Amino acid sequence: MFSNYDEALSWIHSRLRLGMKPGLMRMEWMMEKLGNPERVIKTVHIGGTNGKGSTVTYLRSILQEGGFMVGTFTSPYIEHFNERISINGVPVSDEDLVKCANKIKPLADQLDNTELGGPTEFEIITAIALYYFAKIKPVDLVIFEVGLGGRFDSTNVIYPLVSVITNIGLDHVKILGETHEEIAFEKAGIIKNGVPAVTAVEQPGAFEVIKTKAAEKKSSLYRLGDHFSVDERVSLVKGERFSVSTLFGHYKNLEISMIGKHQVDNAAVALMAAELLKRYYSFPLEESHIRTGFLKAYWPGRFEIISEKPLVILDGAHNEEGIDAFVSELGNRYSDKRITILFAALNDKKLDRMISKLDQAADTIVFTSFDFPRASSADELYQKSSSSGKQAIENWQTYLTTKVQALENDEILAITGSLYFLSEVKPVLKEYL
């Protein structure tokens, strides 16, 4: 058993050696041994390729403004592991994490010796979250972010009040499929019988897959652009202004502090989910809760301006769709500045296309690596670039401290790529900015 936080965290991370093992049987086994905590908590389930964390945050902020205690389960973290399991934005305490880990470890040890095999790191963390919200700190509602895919993701043991699929992109193709339709099939696996679903999926083929699954499950499906819509969008210096029309009302001149059209779409999806909670599940949410919740919503590492002088931005653009949004906002907002991009990525991504788009956006592009099992080397990334201003560096810490101090007024430093990379970068940057 664990006597302190470091021991518990070390054990959790040690499960990374088991990699990814899609399937629900290990989770279902643990849930039964724990008394099925997933059955006693009210939940919302949020999947999709991009925008999951932001959508979680918008919905949590709206509910919090309505006076509710809201748990969230998200991944990965940016600064501290405990962020992954939070209540009203406050991470689980070290003491409670140890308590939960001590409850789960004996079950993991038993599973290690069964034909099902031992639970992965993500399965362990999911089980900890479910136990925590059901037994240690009960809340009014928990918003669960899917880890990977949906159908066989460990979070899919829950039976939510609302299911959300933000969008579909070509990410994790070796696991989820190589087409939008194949990936949509995996994402649609979170749609449950009779549970309303909300989506912002654009591709006709992918949407047809989701629509078919919703019909099969007798789930009412609400699609951005069909059943609710965004208009009057205006980019602000630090955020966006827009209006949303739903089947239930019209909301003019809403504002968010996060940047980009994709964030407007994420906010609209969260608003639609909040409307369903209000209309069908007696969550008394008012327009003021939506407006204030949007303004207060903050999710780190999403086109986050962490310093204005010098101008430094963090953005977790870790797949092709994320790179598209990132490059678009750089062009819209900073076309008058010299742009340096620092990039690190995992080797299971479509790196050629991602780097090609970054090449076009950057005056200087710097490739690096970081301490993570699937991280690409700086040289591997460098070789995929055709930029005349490309560099490869091994020690990104030294580079950052030097570059930040040398940035001039007409320059911007944008750090992007893997969210795991950003989680290492941000604490270092905070020492110098």
Architecture overview:
This protein folds into two domains: 292 residues, 3-Layer(aba) Sandwich (UDP-N-acetylmuramoyl-L-alanine:D-glutamate ligase); 127 residues, Mur ligase, C-terminal domain (Protein-Tyrosine Phosphatase, Chain A, Alpha-Beta Complex), CATH 3.90.190. Helix 3 packs across helix 9 and helix 4 crosses helix 5. It has 15 helices and 17 strands. The chain is of the alpha/beta class and 433 residues long. Helix 13 links the parallel strand 15 and strand 16. The strands form three sheets. It has an eight-stranded mixed beta sheet with strand order 4-3-2-5-1-6-7-8, with helices on both faces. A six-stranded mixed beta sheet has the order 12-13-17-14-15-16, with helices on both faces.
